[in-house]
């Protein structure tokens, strides 16, 4: 069974991406374990190594696409709060900078772990500040509504 064909067919089915990833990983491991075992039984170590490498590559593609989805979610949140996203400017002849790296298996630019941690920290700080400010306004409006209803009830007597 071809990994690309599996991925193409599963993209048509509407399922949670975590379930789709789990299923694809399971299929890849099952398929390649059988082929690697067969190659080892034939004592073809080169073929077994090639298959093991191909399995790792396919699993890395799934892992990196999962990381890209998570990264996109945090980047959307950062843009909502107008938090600066690390720049993707690269020096000549380099495939990465201090904050980004190129994932060969998935073909996507991924934030390095330290940059992702910083981005999540900034987003969470902004969310906390927004909730606190929103909470103050809600408290003020409820107090104002209580005062107005109290004044109306006194005036109605």
Shape, per Cα inertia axes: elongated
- Percentage of residues assigned to helices: over 70%
| Main sheet attributes: strand count, strand direction, barrel closure | 2 strands, antiparallel
Averaging pLDDT over every residue, what do you get? 87
State the end-to-end distance.
82 Å
Using the CA coordinates, give the radius of gyration. 26 Å
> Spatial order of the strands in the main sheet?
1-2
Q: Kindly state the number of beta strands.
A: 2
Number of domains: 1
Number of helices: 4
Low-confidence stretches: none
Q: What's the order of the H and E elements? A: HHHEEH
Beta-strand percentage range: 5-15%
Reconstruct the topology from this structure.
Elements: H1 3-12, H2 17-41, H3 45-80, E1 100-103, E2 108-111, H4 113-156
Antiparallel strand pairs: 1-2
Helix pairs in contact: 2-3, 3-4
């Amino acid at each position: 069974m071809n990994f690309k064909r599996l991925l193409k067919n599963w993209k048509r089915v509407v399922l949670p991406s975590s379930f789709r990833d789990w299923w694809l990983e399971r299929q890849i491991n099952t398929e390649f374990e059988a082929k690697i075992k067969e190659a080892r039984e034939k004592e073809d170590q080169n073929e077994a190594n090639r298959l093991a490498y191909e399995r790792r590559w396919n699993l890395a593609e799934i892992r990196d696409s999962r990381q890209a989805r998570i990264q996109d979610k945090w980047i959307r949140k950062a843009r909502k709060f107008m938090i600066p996203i690390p720049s993707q400017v690269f020096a000549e002849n380099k495939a990465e900078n201090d904050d980004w790296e190129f994932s060969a298996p998935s073909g996507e630019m991924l934030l390095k772990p330290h940059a992702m941690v910083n981005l999540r920290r900034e987003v969470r700080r902004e969310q906390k500040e927004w909730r606190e400010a929103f909470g103050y306004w809600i408290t003020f409006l409820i107090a104002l509504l209580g005062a107005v209803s109290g004044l109306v009830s006194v005036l109605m007597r």
